[in-house]
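<instruction>
Derive structure tokens from the sequence
<data>
Labelled lines for chain and fold:
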Amino acid sequence: MEQTEFLEKKIFTDLKNMNDGFDDEAIHYFSESDFETVLKQVEHFGIGIYTIKSHLNGKFNADSTHDDHNKKATDPKWYKKAFKTLKTSQTELLYAATYKVSKKLLER
């Protein structure tokens, strides 16, 4: 299984991709509540998140990376903190992330 397929089947199931063409079609954007679900699933599977970015009305708003927090991509502390900071800075944001699914998970 490839990473994109894994994310679609295991992480993004039943969530609405809000990317209506304002960014690359391969990038999934989610509402605040759906992105919370994504983060819970990511933590459950031990998937790494390199970057979280936010958009407002189809325009880039802000981003945060695991390097900004001096944490490993798989450490949920950094992405939970980053998400909390982003969502309290502005309402009605959409969120996307860059992920790293381990080979071990993909081979299951």
Observations:
- The chain has four helices and three strands.
- The longest helix spans residues 32-45.
- Strands lie at 48-56, 59-65, 94-100.
- The mean pLDDT is 94.
